[in-house]
């Protein structure tokens, strides 16, 4: 296993892409044929929902694997389905990795002490059962909330270092109300800059050979000026940039997150990619196409659009 940041950079170079696709399954948005098959097999049950989520996630991955370097699996939608949903979530993660994609679990975890360590070991590390060290989740990276301070982040840093994983600390998130807390000024700087400074100061311990750290940061494309500032403040940090597509961000808004080498970030889109088949114009223009064709086309278009603005 190589450093997580090196795996991301290598994938970006190999595929000439900085695309990350969010896997956010919602029952009401799934293709009719896929959902009907799950309901016929499992009845109106949580097992039907989890089976449909697993199938949908895996088919999306197969459609985008040529154009994306990573997937961001949103744990909440799988957790909503209960235990069967978590089994489906792991199936999707493993399918992504088997397809050569980096699997990021969007779990936004944070706690302290042994609880934080348990989260870190569960997602990035291992659990010893008898004489065997087992991988509970085996994901490549997780998202982490910084609200509890370094107590809530350092266990993930240590697990990432020991097991070649990565983490993305929430610095400036893409949602509209993020400024209610993140933009508050403390000691002359907004809170998000303080968090970014902590990330930058601790980057060296997880540095890869390409000059990027596996200690990453989440910064939304919906705030391009702040993204520009934070890119300068964290030059060696891998950025996970959400907010592209359905939330309003585009190539121009994501561009400030890139370094002069055209690297340093992956840009995430979820709904605009995985539900592209629901676009009425696309459906009218492609009446005989399979729904995964729309997903593939959307991922390719995103890659090409982002490459237009890359240095």
How would you describe this structure to a colleague?
There is one protein chain. The protein is of the alpha/beta class and 311 residues long. It has a single domain (4-309), classed as Aldolase class I (TIM Barrel). 46% of the residues lie in helices and 18% in strands. It is built from 14 helices and twelve strands. The protein has helices at 4-15, 32-42, 46-64, 75-79, 83-98, 113-123, 154-163, 179-182, 191-201, 224-233, 251-254, 271-274, 280-285, 291-309, and strands spanning 19-23, 70-74, 102-109, 127-129, 132-134, 141-144, 166-172, 185-186, 189-190, 213-219, 237-241, 265-269. An eight-stranded parallel beta barrel has the order 1-2-3-6-7-10-11-12, surrounded by eight helices. Strands 4-5 form a two-stranded antiparallel ribbon. α7 links the parallel β6 and β7. α2 (32-42) runs antiparallel to α3 (46-64), α3 runs parallel beside α5 and α3 (46-64) crosses α14.
Keywords for this entry:
12 strands, 8-stranded parallel β-barrel, 311 residues
Question: Helices, strands, pairings?
Answer:
Blueprint: H1 4-15, E1 19-23, H2 32-42, H3 46-64, E2 70-74, H4 75-79, H5 83-98, E3 102-109, H6 113-123, E4 127-129, E5 132-134, E6 141-144, H7 154-163, E7 166-172, H8 179-182, E8 185-186, E9 189-190, H9 191-201, E10 213-219, H10 224-233, E11 237-241, H11 251-254, E12 265-269, H12 271-274, H13 280-285, H14 291-309
Parallel strand pairs: 1-2, 1-12, 2-3, 3-6, 6-7, 7-10, 10-11, 11-12
Antiparallel strand pairs: 4-5, 8-9
Helix pairs in contact: 2-3, 3-5, 3-14, 6-7
